[in-house]
Design goal:
The protein is α+β, with helices and mostly antiparallel strands. Helix content is 53%, strand content 12%. The strands form five sheets. Strands 3-5-13-9-10 form a five-stranded antiparallel sheet. A three-stranded antiparallel sheet has the order 6-7-12, with no helix packed on it. It starts with a helix and ends in a 10-residue tail after the last strand. The relative contact order is 0.10.
């Protein structure tokens, strides 16, 4: 009797674990809290499920062991650095990367459920619904100025102080916003939709191969909608991840597709050309209508951009890796230890203080680098081992009718070079679940060495490493650039080129002085602004600046049409955190002065006119003193020679 009772409990627990997993698939696009509760319930009930499940779980222990090993090394590193924590358990439980180990428990459980053919068909249906929820919530958020998650939870009313959506420009007369679905950030939503887009690409290709035009069109429409939301989402790291895993899968399955597409005929070629032209026109239309997308694509080749400060993040990260290669710094200590490194940069060039302060420093913005820093090199290597097994599984995966392909889980490998998706619970939890479903769907065969996986992982890893070795070889003094706002982006680029770097970069300064840059008369007469300097000095607490603000203007005697006068308006703007620095500030003018310009160096000096706090905790009550400049006195019939600006190291111009 007792045995029957426990058997019934066991069977019931197994079913609850499965249905909790299914509901989790519906919940993670909608609610972070609900998805975590359902994931926890699925894990808990699995413990009491039939013992056959534990026999099935053995074949999935190797990849799971690599994940747990990476987390365990972070825990060991934390214990080694125990005395360096001010509050060990508080920091470890709230901030440590090792505390997320429980998320990975869903991986083998999902694999076991997915290994059962009857359960698998049910899982397929929930995967499709999950994708549609991600897509629909994303489309809805495009047209909502409020962040939908908080807006709905507040009873469809905006709460005071809630952040609004980032505007993306008008479309067909409607205002659009950066899509985040029901998530809190666009990066999280970008990660969620990335799980599905490569699978949609595969479905479209497969239906074309089978000459199933009806389904090809249907899946194609879904792919276009998902791609539109995905591009508007602005997650550049996710873009690269999706592209990489899609190309990898197609190349690894090339024999399955090669020679099996419909025969080429003039009519089909015409149809294909029409489709491509239509797609090209649509992409061009949306690109022209969306300033946010234009800005994002323009920033791909820049070192310092408003949203992509990886240069500074890695400059602070790599010294930590060099100092603690074996044991790491310990979980939850990245911000603390990287802040110590930033002090050396600031002490050398104080103008970098604000730049480094607003640089996100909670983690390394690189999954492998993050675990290598906090848990030691071996922790990062274990993650690489897991991704090798994952891509081997992706390369050998098959497609059953009605299934939603899960090859998109591999996007995290390349995307993780630029963002810590494995530290984002909202992305990491579905990643482990979907990876488990992918693993369990395929029957385990004898382990075979995957040459394709090794080549792919090595090539992408070395490509990324080489890129950053080149980027980071640029001195910090040259990577830093003052923010310039002008009437057009090309004009701003030219002005940036006319601003001299720090004094210790003598070669670059001489090179820029020797250059001649000309602008049109209308551009030369337009006003532009240049980021200045802070009202208080390092360290923190900060003391009020005593020196006057000054900058130099150089006019070469050889120039044919330089300006002969200049108007400078000094204005104050508040200092903000990293999310607001490049958006609208509260600004007000402090004074305007006109001055004549002669060949050679000219000096502009401005004395503080306001009473400021003598000592303050940065950034409270700390302001910028910046400059709006307008040139004049040149021949308006010809192009103007753009003068050189020298703000010294800290708005402290002086002739050497």
């Amino acid at each position: 009797m007792k045995r029957i009772f426990f058997s019934q409990i066991s069977e019931t627990s197994g079913k609850v674990s499965l249905y909790s997993l299914l509901l989790f698939l519906l919940a993670f696009p909608l609610s972070v809290s609900a998805s975590q509760i359902l994931a926890g319930l699925s894990i808990f009930c699995f413990i009491f499920s039939p013992k056959e499940n534990f026999q099935k779980i053995r074949v999935y222990l190797l990849p799971w062991a690599l994940i747990l090993g990476a987390y365990t090394l972070v825990f060991i590193s934390s214990l080694v650095h125990f005395e360096e924590y001010s509050h060990f358990w508080k920091t470890f439980t709230r901030q440590s990367e090792a505390g997320d180990f429980w998320l990975s428990i869903l991986f083998p459980i999902a694999a076991v459920h997915s290994s059962d053919e009857k359960k698998r068909k049910l899982i397929y249906k929930y995967l499709w619904i999950s994708f549609l929820l991600v897509l629909i919530s994303g489309i809805a958020s495009v047209f909502s100025e409020y962040r939908l998650g908080k807006f709905i939870s507040n009873g469809f009313t905006p709460a005071p102080g809630d952040r609004r959506q980032h505007p993306a420009g008008p479309l067909f007369g409607l205002e659009t916003y950066l899509p985040i679905g029901l998530m809190n950030t666009h990066l999280t939503y970008g990660g969620l939709i990335s799980f599905y887009i490569p699978g949609l690409v595969l479905l479209v290709l497969q239906k074309i191969k089978k000459k199933d035009l009806k389904r090809s069109f249907g899946f194609g429409v879904l792919l276009l909608l998902a791609s539109w939301v995905f591009l508007l989402n602005q997650s550049k790291s996710a873009w690269l991840g999706v592209l990489a895993v899609t190309v990898y899968f197609i190349l690894s399955k090339w024999k399955d597709f090669s020679g099996k597409f419909p025969r080429i005929t003039p009519v089909r070629v015409l149809i294909l050309i029409s489709v491509l032209v239509s797609l090209g026109a649509a992409v061009r239309f949306f690109y022209q209508k969306n300033w946010l997308l234009q800005r994002t694509l323009a920033q791909l080749t820049e070192i310092q951009t408003p949203e992509n400060q990886r240069y500074w993040i890695y400059k602070l990260s790599l010294p930590l890796l060099a100092e603690n290669p074996i044991l790491g710094t310990g979980g939850g200590r990245f911000k603390e230890t990287s802040s110590e490194v930033s002090k050396t940069f600031i002490q050398k060039n104080e103008q970098l203080w604000y730049e480094l302060y607003i640089t996100p420093n909670k983690h390394a913005h690189n999954d492998i680098l993050e675990f290598a820093i906090v848990g030691g090199w071996l922790s990062g290597i274990l993650w690489i081992g897991f991704f090798y097994l994952l891509f081997r599984k992706i390369a050998t995966s098959s497609l059953e009718e009605g299934n939603f392909p899960l090859i998109g889980v591999g996007f995290i490998w390349v995307a993780g070079f630029f963002q810590c998706y494995l530290l984002d619970d909202e992305v990491a939890l579905p990643f482990f679940a979907l990876a488990g479903l992918l693993w369990g769907r395929e029957k385990e065969t004898a382990s075979q060495f995957s040459k394709a996986s090794v080549i792919f992982l090595s090539f992408t890893f070395l490509l990324n490493t080489s890129f950053w070795i080149w980027r980071l070889s640029i001195p910090a003094e040259l990577a830093y650039g003052r923010q310039v706002f002008a009437s057009s982006s090309p004009l701003a680029k030219k002005i940036e080129r006319r601003i001299l770097p720090f004094r210790n970069q003598t070669e670059e300064r001489e090179k820029r002085i020797s250059e001649t840059i000309q602008v049109s008369a209308s551009e030369g007469n337009s006003e532009f602004s240049v980021e200045g300097c802070l009202t208080h000095r390092y360290p923190n607490p900060a003391k009020r600046r005593k020196e006057d603000y000054s900058f130099g203007i150089y006019i070469s005697p050889e120039w044919k049409n330089p300006p002969t006068k200049m108007e400078v308006t000094v204005f104050s703007e508040e200092s903000f955190d990293e999310d607001k620095l490049y958006w609208s500030h509260r600004k007000y003018d402090l004074g305007t002065r006109e001055m004549g310009l002669k060949p050679g160096w000219n000096s502009f000096v401005w004395k503080e006119t306001m009473e400021l706090s003598k000592i303050t905790i940065f950034p409270d009550i700390v302001f910028f003193r910046s400059f709006k400049i307008r040139f004049g006195g040149f021949d308006p019939e010809n192009t103007m020679d753009l003068p050189i600006l020298d703000l010294g190291d800290l708005c402290d111009f002086r002739l050497e």
